[in-house]
Amino acid sequence: MRLALAQWPVGQPASLDDFASRLRGALGEAAQAGAHMAVFPEYLSLELAAIFEPAVRADFVRSIEALQAYHGAWLALFDTLAREYAMTVLSGTFLLRQGNGRYRNRACLHLPDGQRFTQDKLTLTGFERACGVIEAGDALHVFDTAHGRIGVAICYDSEFPLYARALREAGVRLLLVPSCTDTPAGATRVRVGCQARALENQFFVAQSVTAGAADWSPALDTNTGYAALYAPSDRGLPADGVVARGDGGTTWAMADVDFAALDETLKNGQVANVADWDFQCRPCVTVARVACVAPSSGEQADAGNQP
Protein backbone atom coordinates (compact mmCIF):
# COMPACT_ATOMS: atom_id res chain seq x y z
CA MET A 1 0.00 0.00 0.00
CA ARG A 2 1.26 3.45 -0.84
CA LEU A 3 0.62 6.34 1.54
CA ALA A 4 0.61 10.05 0.75
CA LEU A 5 1.49 11.90 3.97
CA ALA A 6 0.85 15.63 3.79
CA GLN A 7 3.37 18.27 4.76
CA TRP A 8 0.61 20.77 4.26
CA PRO A 9 1.69 24.38 3.65
CA VAL A 10 -1.03 26.37 5.38
CA GLY A 11 -2.77 28.58 2.86
CA GLN A 12 -5.18 31.50 3.04
CA PRO A 13 -8.20 30.50 0.92
CA ALA A 14 -10.70 33.14 -0.14
CA SER A 15 -13.65 30.75 -0.10
CA LEU A 16 -14.70 27.16 0.47
CA ASP A 17 -14.47 26.59 -3.28
CA ASP A 18 -10.93 27.95 -3.28
CA PHE A 19 -10.00 25.58 -0.46
CA ALA A 20 -11.71 22.63 -2.21
CA SER A 21 -9.89 23.36 -5.45
CA ARG A 22 -6.52 23.25 -3.72
CA LEU A 23 -7.37 19.97 -1.99
CA ARG A 24 -8.57 18.41 -5.23
CA GLY A 25 -5.33 19.37 -6.96
CA ALA A 26 -3.18 17.97 -4.19
CA LEU A 27 -5.08 14.68 -4.03
CA GLY A 28 -4.87 14.42 -7.80
CA GLU A 29 -1.08 14.58 -7.50
CA ALA A 30 -1.14 11.89 -4.81
CA ALA A 31 -3.37 9.67 -6.95
CA GLN A 32 -1.04 10.05 -9.94
CA ALA A 33 1.82 8.94 -7.70
CA GLY A 34 -0.11 5.76 -6.91
CA ALA A 35 -1.33 6.57 -3.40
CA HIS A 36 -4.04 4.36 -1.91
CA MET A 37 -4.40 6.49 1.21
CA ALA A 38 -3.81 10.17 2.00
CA VAL A 39 -3.29 11.62 5.47
CA PHE A 40 -3.83 15.32 6.22
CA PRO A 41 -2.63 17.04 9.43
CA GLU A 42 -4.29 18.10 12.64
CA TYR A 43 -6.18 21.43 12.55
CA LEU A 44 -6.46 21.38 8.76
CA SER A 45 -9.99 22.80 9.07
CA LEU A 46 -8.61 25.94 10.71
CA GLU A 47 -7.14 26.93 7.33
CA LEU A 48 -10.73 27.44 6.22
CA ALA A 49 -11.08 30.13 8.91
CA ALA A 50 -9.12 32.41 6.57
CA ILE A 51 -12.41 33.12 4.75
CA PHE A 52 -13.78 34.97 7.80
CA GLU A 53 -13.34 38.65 8.57
CA PRO A 54 -10.03 39.54 10.30
CA ALA A 55 -11.55 39.98 13.77
CA VAL A 56 -13.00 36.45 13.65
CA ARG A 57 -10.08 34.58 12.14
CA ALA A 58 -7.66 36.22 14.59
CA ASP A 59 -9.70 34.91 17.54
CA PHE A 60 -9.31 31.15 18.02
CA VAL A 61 -12.60 30.59 19.85
CA ARG A 62 -14.64 32.78 17.50
CA SER A 63 -13.10 31.12 14.46
CA ILE A 64 -13.95 27.56 15.56
CA GLU A 65 -17.47 28.72 16.43
CA ALA A 66 -17.85 30.20 12.93
CA LEU A 67 -16.51 27.02 11.33
CA GLN A 68 -19.43 24.97 12.66
CA ALA A 69 -21.62 26.20 9.80
CA TYR A 70 -19.20 24.50 7.37
CA HIS A 71 -18.97 21.09 9.00
CA GLY A 72 -21.52 19.45 6.71
CA ALA A 73 -19.82 20.88 3.63
CA TRP A 74 -16.44 19.73 5.04
CA LEU A 75 -17.61 16.14 5.36
CA ALA A 76 -19.27 16.17 1.94
CA LEU A 77 -16.12 17.56 0.33
CA PHE A 78 -13.89 14.77 1.65
CA ASP A 79 -16.53 12.11 0.95
CA THR A 80 -16.54 13.29 -2.66
CA LEU A 81 -12.75 13.42 -2.96
CA ALA A 82 -12.33 9.94 -1.48
CA ARG A 83 -14.83 8.58 -3.96
CA GLU A 84 -13.43 10.48 -6.97
CA TYR A 85 -9.88 9.29 -6.37
CA ALA A 86 -10.82 5.85 -5.00
CA MET A 87 -8.65 6.69 -2.03
CA THR A 88 -8.98 6.41 1.74
CA VAL A 89 -8.51 9.92 3.15
CA LEU A 90 -7.89 11.13 6.69
CA SER A 91 -9.18 14.71 6.53
CA GLY A 92 -7.00 16.09 9.32
CA THR A 93 -9.10 17.29 12.26
CA PHE A 94 -12.16 19.48 12.77
CA LEU A 95 -13.03 21.08 16.12
CA LEU A 96 -16.65 19.99 16.37
CA ARG A 97 -19.16 21.45 18.82
CA GLN A 98 -20.79 18.96 21.19
CA GLY A 99 -24.20 19.03 22.82
CA ASN A 100 -22.72 20.69 25.92
CA GLY A 101 -21.38 23.61 23.87
CA ARG A 102 -17.76 22.50 24.09
CA TYR A 103 -15.63 21.28 21.16
CA ARG A 104 -13.78 18.06 20.41
CA ASN A 105 -10.75 17.85 18.16
CA ARG A 106 -12.02 15.13 15.81
CA ALA A 107 -10.29 13.24 13.01
CA CYS A 108 -12.39 11.64 10.29
CA LEU A 109 -11.35 8.80 8.00
CA HIS A 110 -13.26 8.84 4.71
CA LEU A 111 -13.49 5.60 2.72
CA PRO A 112 -14.13 5.47 -1.05
CA ASP A 113 -17.42 3.63 -0.48
CA GLY A 114 -18.81 6.51 1.58
CA GLN A 115 -18.16 5.10 5.06
CA ARG A 116 -16.69 7.40 7.71
CA PHE A 117 -14.86 6.63 10.94
CA THR A 118 -13.99 9.19 13.63
CA GLN A 119 -11.52 9.49 16.47
CA ASP A 120 -11.41 12.33 19.01
CA LYS A 121 -8.21 13.62 20.58
CA LEU A 122 -7.92 12.03 24.00
CA THR A 123 -5.39 14.25 25.78
CA LEU A 124 -5.44 18.03 25.45
CA THR A 125 -2.35 20.18 25.09
CA GLY A 126 -1.77 23.23 27.25
CA PHE A 127 -2.94 25.47 24.39
CA GLU A 128 -6.19 23.51 24.06
CA ARG A 129 -6.86 23.56 27.79
CA ALA A 130 -6.11 27.27 28.05
CA CYS A 131 -8.68 28.25 25.44
CA GLY A 132 -11.36 26.98 27.82
CA VAL A 133 -13.79 25.51 25.30
CA ILE A 134 -12.21 22.22 24.14
CA GLU A 135 -12.81 18.90 25.88
CA ALA A 136 -10.98 15.59 25.60
CA GLY A 137 -12.45 12.58 23.86
CA ASP A 138 -13.53 9.55 25.86
CA ALA A 139 -13.29 6.59 23.48
CA LEU A 140 -10.61 4.81 21.48
CA HIS A 141 -11.58 3.29 18.13
CA VAL A 142 -10.15 0.96 15.50
CA PHE A 143 -11.22 1.04 11.86
CA ASP A 144 -11.53 -1.92 9.50
CA THR A 145 -10.63 -0.90 5.96
CA ALA A 146 -9.60 -2.54 2.71
CA HIS A 147 -6.01 -1.85 3.83
CA GLY A 148 -6.36 -3.60 7.16
CA ARG A 149 -7.16 -2.41 10.66
CA ILE A 150 -6.17 1.20 11.30
CA GLY A 151 -6.02 3.46 14.36
CA VAL A 152 -5.56 7.20 14.84
CA ALA A 153 -3.58 9.10 17.50
CA ILE A 154 -3.98 12.86 17.14
CA CYS A 155 -0.68 14.67 17.70
CA TYR A 156 -0.14 14.75 21.51
CA ASP A 157 -1.89 11.38 21.89
CA SER A 158 1.06 9.76 20.11
CA GLU A 159 3.19 10.55 23.17
CA PHE A 160 1.21 8.21 25.44
CA PRO A 161 2.06 4.51 25.05
CA LEU A 162 -1.10 2.94 26.48
CA TYR A 163 -3.35 4.38 23.77
CA ALA A 164 -1.22 2.81 21.07
CA ARG A 165 -0.93 -0.44 23.01
CA ALA A 166 -4.72 -0.74 23.25
CA LEU A 167 -4.93 -0.22 19.49
CA ARG A 168 -2.25 -2.85 18.88
CA GLU A 169 -4.09 -5.36 21.06
CA ALA A 170 -7.21 -4.65 18.97
CA GLY A 171 -5.31 -5.67 15.83
CA VAL A 172 -4.08 -2.33 14.45
CA ARG A 173 -1.11 -2.58 12.09
CA LEU A 174 -1.01 1.04 10.91
CA LEU A 175 -1.34 4.07 13.20
CA LEU A 176 -2.11 7.44 11.62
CA VAL A 177 -0.85 10.54 13.43
CA PRO A 178 -2.16 13.88 12.14
CA SER A 179 -0.13 16.56 13.90
CA CYS A 180 0.41 20.31 14.23
CA THR A 181 3.43 21.65 16.13
CA ASP A 182 4.74 25.21 16.31
CA THR A 183 8.20 24.69 17.81
CA PRO A 184 11.13 22.39 17.05
CA ALA A 185 10.73 20.93 20.55
CA GLY A 186 7.08 20.08 19.83
CA ALA A 187 7.99 18.50 16.51
CA THR A 188 10.67 16.43 18.24
CA ARG A 189 8.27 15.20 20.91
CA VAL A 190 5.75 13.95 18.36
CA ARG A 191 8.45 12.40 16.16
CA VAL A 192 9.99 10.57 19.11
CA GLY A 193 6.52 9.49 20.22
CA CYS A 194 5.77 8.09 16.77
CA GLN A 195 9.04 6.16 16.62
CA ALA A 196 8.60 4.81 20.14
CA ARG A 197 5.06 3.63 19.38
CA ALA A 198 6.31 1.87 16.23
CA LEU A 199 9.03 0.12 18.22
CA GLU A 200 6.84 -0.91 21.15
CA ASN A 201 3.96 -2.19 19.06
CA GLN A 202 5.81 -3.50 16.01
CA PHE A 203 3.52 -1.68 13.61
CA PHE A 204 3.75 1.22 11.14
CA VAL A 205 3.17 4.80 12.26
CA ALA A 206 2.38 7.43 9.63
CA GLN A 207 2.66 11.10 10.57
CA SER A 208 1.31 14.13 8.69
CA VAL A 209 2.20 17.74 9.58
CA THR A 210 1.23 21.34 8.96
CA ALA A 211 3.97 23.41 7.34
CA GLY A 212 4.90 27.03 6.75
CA ALA A 213 3.53 30.13 8.45
CA ALA A 214 0.06 31.63 8.80
CA ASP A 215 0.36 34.92 10.68
CA TRP A 216 -3.39 35.47 10.43
CA SER A 217 -4.18 32.41 12.59
CA PRO A 218 -3.53 32.13 16.36
CA ALA A 219 -3.38 28.32 16.06
CA LEU A 220 -1.58 27.87 12.73
CA ASP A 221 0.86 30.77 13.09
CA THR A 222 4.09 28.73 12.88
CA ASN A 223 4.47 25.10 11.82
CA THR A 224 7.33 22.65 12.19
CA GLY A 225 8.29 19.03 11.54
CA TYR A 226 8.25 16.59 8.66
CA ALA A 227 5.80 13.98 7.45
CA ALA A 228 7.17 10.45 7.76
CA LEU A 229 6.42 6.75 7.93
CA TYR A 230 8.04 4.92 10.85
CA ALA A 231 8.54 1.19 11.40
CA PRO A 232 10.10 -0.99 14.08
CA SER A 233 13.88 -1.19 13.62
CA ASP A 234 14.35 -4.84 12.79
CA ARG A 235 15.23 -7.32 10.05
CA GLY A 236 13.80 -6.44 6.66
CA LEU A 237 12.91 -2.88 7.74
CA PRO A 238 15.07 0.26 7.95
CA ALA A 239 17.66 0.14 10.70
CA ASP A 240 16.83 3.70 11.77
CA GLY A 241 13.10 3.01 11.74
CA VAL A 242 12.41 5.64 9.07
CA VAL A 243 10.74 4.16 5.98
CA ALA A 244 10.23 7.53 4.30
CA ARG A 245 10.48 11.18 5.26
CA GLY A 246 9.42 14.33 3.46
CA ASP A 247 11.61 17.30 2.75
CA GLY A 248 10.82 20.97 3.08
CA GLY A 249 9.84 21.53 -0.52
CA THR A 250 7.06 19.04 -1.24
CA THR A 251 3.42 18.72 -0.22
CA TRP A 252 3.55 14.93 0.02
CA ALA A 253 5.88 12.41 1.59
CA MET A 254 5.20 9.22 -0.36
CA ALA A 255 5.73 5.99 1.55
CA ASP A 256 5.18 2.31 0.79
CA VAL A 257 3.80 0.13 3.58
CA ASP A 258 5.15 -3.43 3.40
CA PHE A 259 2.96 -5.53 5.66
CA ALA A 260 4.74 -8.72 4.57
CA ALA A 261 8.03 -7.38 5.92
CA LEU A 262 6.26 -6.40 9.13
CA ASP A 263 4.80 -9.89 9.51
CA GLU A 264 8.25 -11.37 9.05
CA THR A 265 9.67 -9.30 11.90
CA LEU A 266 6.86 -10.52 14.14
CA LYS A 267 7.87 -14.11 13.39
CA ASN A 268 11.64 -13.88 13.08
CA GLY A 269 12.68 -10.47 14.37
CA GLN A 270 15.63 -9.74 16.63
CA VAL A 271 13.26 -8.55 19.37
CA ALA A 272 9.65 -9.29 20.29
CA ASN A 273 8.31 -6.18 21.98
CA VAL A 274 4.67 -7.11 21.43
CA ALA A 275 5.05 -10.61 22.86
CA ASP A 276 7.24 -9.40 25.72
CA TRP A 277 5.03 -6.45 26.73
CA ASP A 278 3.50 -8.20 29.74
CA PHE A 279 6.92 -9.05 31.18
CA GLN A 280 7.16 -5.45 32.43
CA CYS A 281 3.80 -5.89 34.21
CA ARG A 282 5.05 -8.52 36.68
CA PRO A 283 3.98 -7.60 40.24
CA CYS A 284 7.60 -7.61 41.39
CA VAL A 285 8.50 -4.70 39.08
CA THR A 286 5.33 -2.62 38.83
CA VAL A 287 6.45 -0.49 41.79
CA ALA A 288 10.01 0.80 42.10
CA ARG A 289 11.82 0.20 45.37
CA VAL A 290 14.04 2.82 46.90
CA ALA A 291 17.54 1.54 47.54
CA CYS A 292 18.72 2.60 50.99
CA VAL A 293 22.44 3.25 51.32
CA ALA A 294 23.72 1.94 54.63
CA PRO A 295 25.02 4.81 56.83
CA SER A 296 28.67 4.94 57.69
CA SER A 297 29.72 4.49 61.30
CA GLY A 298 28.37 7.23 63.56
CA GLU A 299 25.90 8.58 60.97
CA GLN A 300 22.16 8.24 60.90
CA ALA A 301 20.37 7.03 57.75
CA ASP A 302 18.55 9.67 55.77
CA ALA A 303 14.89 9.09 56.54
CA GLY A 304 14.01 10.07 52.98
CA ASN A 305 15.89 7.06 51.68
CA GLN A 306 14.05 4.50 53.74
CA PRO A 307 12.00 1.89 51.84
Fold blueprint:
Elements: E1 2-9, H1 16-32, E2 37-39, H2 54-57, H3 60-67, H4 71-84, E3 88-97, E4 103-110, E5 116-120, H5 126-131, E6 143-145, E7 148-152, H6 161-169, E8 174-178, H7 184-201, E9 204-213, E10 222-223, E11 228-230, E12 242-245, E13 252-256, H8 259-268, H9 273-276
Helix pairs in contact: 6-7
Domain CN hydrolase: 1-259
GO molecular function: hydrolase activity
InterPro entries: C-N_Hydrolase, C-N_Hydrolase_sf
Explained architecture:
The structure is a single chain. This protein has 307 residues and is an alpha/beta fold. It has a single domain, classed as Nitrilase/N-carbamoyl-D-aminoacid amidohydrolase, CATH 3.60.110.10. The protein has nine helices and 13 strands. A hairpin with an 8-residue loop joins strand 9 and strand 10. Helix 6 packs parallel to helix 7. The radius of gyration is 22 Å and the shape is globular. The termini are far apart.
